[in-house]
Write a structure and sequence with these properties.
CATH class: Alpha Beta
Structural class: alpha/beta
CATH topology: Rossmann fold
Largest sheet: 7 strands, parallel
Order of helices and strands: EHEHEHEHEHEEEHEHH
CATH superfamily: NAD(P)-binding Rossmann-like Domain
Strand content: 15-25%
């Protein structure tokens, strides 16, 4: 039987591109999102056989919702070989604004708790089987905080730290934890950004490089590699120089914008 990949946030952007690449790579698909009709239309447009894909409606902001979707996948299609916690949001915040504290809470609920809830239904079964890939989608925004990006940067730094912790917990079990940190990828999530996006990459190109990193069980990868170099330089830059470098940089749009 063909291997199975479970992907959240599969209705658009990176998630959809990953679904296409894994299907091309010979995987059956278990695709999850709130907007199931969009996934179904995408699969139909690609003439993907009904036996090759199943769609699960779930909201990663609700723990029980995504856990139920994972259990349904196991019941219907079996334990996945790869689970990709891709679903996430990116919204600017201003800590002076009381309403933006709610945006922060929502971002952490989706990008962090939702990621752990995505993995939860599969960890024990993968450990018992002795194989599997759990993939967390981080971001180069995890490396250093950017003005106006507090919620997103904090959540993606949390993704990196969480996946590193989980990797240690599963060491020796045969289950690999893969952390992928995209740079700027051309998706609906980034198209409204009001600042320069160096090394902007097509979602399809990201998905191809991600596919190979996941297949190899790579523990951590920044894609594209050029952003990995930039990220390392940013990390070692003294605070005073870094603060000066990002002063006046365009901020991410807040919800009401």
């Amino acid at each position: 039987m063909k291997p199975l990949v479970f992907i959240t946030g599969a209705s658009s952007g990176i998630g959809q591109a990953l679904a296409a690449r894994f299907h091309e790579g010979g995987y059956r698909l278990a695709l999850t999102a709130r907007r199931t009709a969009e996934i179904e239309a995408w699969a139909a447009a690609r003439s993907i056989d009904a036996g090759e894909v199943q769609v699960y409606g779930a909201d990663v902001a609700q723990v029980d919702s995504i856990v139920v979707a994972g259990l349904a996948c196991t019941e219907s299609q079996g334990v996945p070989d790869v689970v990709i916690a891709n679903a996430g949001i990116s919204v600017g915040i201003d800590t002076e604004d009381r309403g933006d504290l709610d945006v922060l809470a929502e971002t952490l609920a989706i990008n962090n708790v939702g990621l752990a809830a995505t993995f939860h239904p599969f960890v024990a079964a993968m450990r018992k089987r002795g194989s599997g890939r759990l993939v967390g989608i981080g971001s180069v925004a995890a490396i250093r905080g950017l003005p106006g990006h507090g919620a997103y940067c904090a959540s993606k730094a949390g993704v990196v730290a969480y996946c590193e912790s989980l990797r240690g917990e599963l060491r020796g079990s045969g289950v690999r934890v893969v952390t992928l940190c995209p740079g700027y990828i051309d998706t609906p999530l980034t198209q409204g950004n009001r600042y320069g996006m160096p090394f902007l990459m097509r979602a399809e190109d990201f998905a191809d490089r991600a596919f190979h990193a996941i297949e190899a069980g790579t523990s951590y990868r920044v894609i594209p590699w050029q952003m990995g170099v930039v990220a390392k330089l940013m990390r070692v830059l003294p605070n005073a120089l870094y603060d000066r470098a990002v002063q006046g940089r365009g901020r991410k749009k807040r919800r009401h914008e």
